[in-house]
Design goal:
This protein is of the alpha/beta class and about 725 residues long. The protein folds into four domains: about 40-145, no CATH class; about 150-335, P-loop containing nucleotide triphosphate hydrolases (Rossmann fold, 3-Layer(aba) Sandwich), CATH 3.40.50; about 350-575, P-loop containing nucleotide triphosphate hydrolases (Rossmann fold, 3-Layer(aba) Sandwich); about 585-725, 3-Layer(aba) Sandwich (Trna Endonuclease, Chain: A, domain 1). It contains 22 helices and 22 strands. The strands form five sheets. A seven-stranded parallel beta sheet has the order 7-8-6-9-10-5-11, with helices on one face. It has a six-stranded parallel beta sheet with strand order 12-17-16-13-15-14, with helices on both faces. It is globular.
Length: about 725
């Protein structure tokens, strides 16, 4: 038997709901409901209205009223206000059209009887507050469309080029912003989105990028420039519908294949980020764009070569249906007559295989360190530390089971852009198998032409390889595990440097930077990329260096790498590998003790301490000169950095709240030709003023930390003579 269906009239049981709309503040419309049942109209309080004659609104409800003239001596000029409705309004006051799925209220007419209108001179009435007068001025103002020139003055400051880029994007529905690699595009793009949102042109965005770029760069930029849109992430299998207004959806490019087209609804803008591999998903992206039907499509790319940009767009069939406009500049055009070296530290995540291998290797390392720490032998402990570091760093480059990794993926995206722009890059790595060989395979798989400079090459072989690299236009990359001192890089021909992995010792890294030449005056823009990995010992190592002050090149530049290594204690290394939870607490306690001792040190004790301090830092021939009878003195000395002399000029004071006039003579010292001059002002108090001109200022707190780091506690002496304090 077939049971007939039961039909019920659900519509008859529905209770209508009326949205109570505050008409002059429609942003508060959401979720405001009024129950229409049992509403007694006669019980409503009578509204008192101060009638204002508003130009342009006539015949309101065909009402008639009496009025009288009020003399106005001077009409104030009304400010221009900007108005962008967030939904369609058939009439700004009396008719409201509301479109909601499955519910349509075609017309709502709001009336109130028994009104007694009056005319008042509101702008000149002393009893009316300034805020109310401003609101009246707004009502009397002429509303007009928000322009870019006005909007750009209302947002966070941008450079002239960023403003040009933002205006270009906002003026073009289909655009390609293609400033060269090394010039970021986050803020100008976010500003353009914010502007179009304020105008009401864009209410929903789909951003295609990757997790690292979204978390590190896009999120803070969008929150700064697009405050009215919520940011949400598309979670494949969890997000049921990608739709809505007042929202920016982020879709990880690696998740495109995991999403379903049916989950996407119409959105206003789709934004393709640069340096993410969208080409490999061109078919899915084409289908996605056709499903979303965006009014705006923007591409960001680091490629400035017009032919290469055109070829890139041809990868996506939808781009052939509309015309894309492009805007972008090379780094040379951007920097003009003052080229600089730009250093960019990029922090990436491990892939799942690397994360597993890293966890296993780290646990093994902790077990080894625990055993060594229980029967300490400093030399053996340090030797094992370096072995552990190199083992872990190779995992951070590549999994043992894969020829690709997050570092390699980013490198390919960047060097492909460099190749298309017909520029050159040099890639440094310390390692062979999980460095040179796997990077070679990644370059080969992506058809990037390269040459290799290996350890063990003769001088003649290296010279020939470098000549090929510089002279052949088809070769983009010089890949090497050699120290920069053997290469003598020509930065005029190689504007991009990649450190695929980092030397853990900052002194070694500083030496490499000097040998590359990035700290010298450059004649063409140079960009240096340093790759790091988040949530690993690299983060803790960086934090330790900063905590100890060992990342301060101005202070420690004269030290040898071996000397700096000796300054890192066993307790420090245990902290780096997550085995010393009390490290920061103990460190702060020790620094506080030294801080208190410094505040009671006498002049002679301070002189002796400063001699030990600068002697440890590599200065010789130290001399101290008293300054009258004041509790202060000069200290001078000399050292060498390679073949270049380094001269020390310092002023040390047992006073506090130091101002410019207390040390002005020191900051005006200028270095001679072929000389490095280091200038220091040191106090056991504090600074009220610090003039930035190449001088290092060390207050009592900093000095306590450096004394602890250098192991100079035993050279502190106290004074019972309070007159020198």
């Amino acid at each position: 038997l077939i049971t007939p269906p039961v039909v019920t009239d659900e519509l008859a049981n529905l209770i209508p709901e009326i949205f109570n709309i505050e008409l002059l503040n429609i942003e508060k419309f959401d979720h405001t409901l009024v129950d229409s049942i049992g509403y007694l109209i006669d019980k409503l309080p009578q509204t008192i209205i101060n009638k204002i004659d508003v130009p342009g609104i006539d015949d309101i409800l065909k009402s008639s009223t009496t009025s009288f003239s009020v003399p106005i001596d001077e009409m104030l000029q009304a400010d221009v206000k900007f108005y962008s409705p967030s939904f369609e309004i058939a009439h700004p006051v009396f008719k409201v059209k509301i479109d909601i799925p499955k519910t349509v209220v075609k017309k709502v007419v709001i009336k109130q009887k028994n009104l007694e209108p009056a005319v008042i001179d509101a702008l000149n009435d002393d009893s009316i507050s300034e805020s109310v007068k401003n609101n009246i001025l707004s009502l009397l103002s002429s509303f007009r469309e928000l322009g870019w020139a006005e909007y750009s003055k209302m947002i966070n400051p941008l450079t002239d080029l960023q403003l040009q880029s933002s205006e270009f994007l906002s003026a073009n529905n289909f655009a390609v912003l293609n400033d060269e690699l090394g010039y970021e595009k986050f803020d100008q793009t976010s500003a353009a989105v914010g502007y179009l949102n304020k105008k009401g042109s864009i209410k929903s965005v789909l951003l295609l990028s990757d997790k690292t770029r979204f978390n590190e760069y896009w999120t803070p930029s969008l929150k700064s420039f697009v405050k009215d849109l919520k940011i949400k992430k598309v979670e494949p299998g969890t997000t049921k519908k990608v739709k809505g207004s007042s929202v920016i959806w982020f879709l990880d490019v690696n998740d495109i294949g995991k999403t379903e087209l049916k989950d996407f609804d119409k959105l206003d803008l789709i934004l393709f980020d640069e340096l993410v591999n969208v080409k490999s998903a061109s078919e899915q992206i084409d289908a996605l764009v056709n499903k979303i039907e965006p009014a705006y499509i923007w591409f960001l790319t680091p490629v400035i070569n017009e032919k290469a940009v055109k070829k890139f767009l041809e990868e996506f069939p939808f781009t052939q249906k509309v015309e894309f406009n492009t805007f972008g500049k090379s780094l040379s055009d951007i920097q003009g007559d003052e080229p600089v070296t730009t250093i960019k530290d990029i922090w990436l995540d491990l892939d799942e295989m690397q994360a597993f291998e890293y966890s296993e290797a780290l646990n093994q390392a902790k077990a080894e360190l625990t055993e060594l720490f229980d029967s300490p032998n400093p030399l053996r402990f340090q030797s094992n530390i370096f072995t552990i570091i190199h083992k872990l760093k190779q995992i951070l480059n590549f999994s043992a089971f894969r020829n690709i990794s997050p570092k390699a993926n980013l490198l390919i995206e960047q060097v492909e852009a460099i190749a298309k722009n017909k520029k050159k890059a040099m890639v440094f790595t310390q390692y062979d198998v999980n460095g040179m060989k796997k990077i070679e395979k990644a370059l080969e798989m992506n058809n990037v032409k390269f040459v290799v400079g290996r350890n063990g090459m003769s001088a003649e072989e290296l010279k020939h390889t470098l000549s090929s690299f510089y002279d052949r236009h088809d070769i983009t990359v010089f890949l090497t595990n050699l120290k920069p001192s053997r290469i003598n890089i020509n930065l005029k021909k190689v504007p991009f440097i990649f450190n695929f992995d980092q030397w853990w010792n900052p002194v070694t890294q500083w030496q490499n930077d000097d040998e590359v030449g990035i700290n010298e005056i450059v004649h063409e823009p140079v960009v240096v990329y340093n790759y790091h990995i988040k949530n690993t010992f690299e983060e803790e190592l960086k934090r330790l260096m900063k905590e100890r002050g060992l990342d301060n090149r101005y202070l420690f530049d004269n030290l040898k790498s071996e000397t700096l290594s000796e300054l890192i204690t066993m307790e420090d290394w245990l902290y780096i590998f997550g085995m010393n939870d009390q490290f920061i607490k103990v460190l702060n306690s020790e620094r506080t003790k030294i801080f208190k001792q410094l505040q009671t040190i006498d002049l002679n004790g301070f002189k002796g301490l400063m001699k030990f301090f600068f002697s440890y830092l590599g200065y010789r021939d130290l001399s101290v000169m008293d300054i009258d009878d004041d509790p202060m003195f000069y200290i001078i000395g000399s050292g060498r950095k390679g073949t270049t002399p380094v001269n020390l000029h310092g002023k040390c004071l047992l006073t506090t709240d130091l101002k410019k006039e207390d040390y002005e003579e020191v900051i005006h010292f200028k270095p001679a030709a072929n000389e490095i001059k280091r200038k220091f002002v040191i106090t056991n108090g504090d600074f009220a003023e610090r003039v930035k001109n190449g001088t290092m200022y060390i207050d009592c707190k900093d000095l306590a930390n450096f004394i602890l780091t250098l192991g100079l506690k035993q050279h502190l002496s106290k004074s019972k003579d309070k007159s020198t304090k």
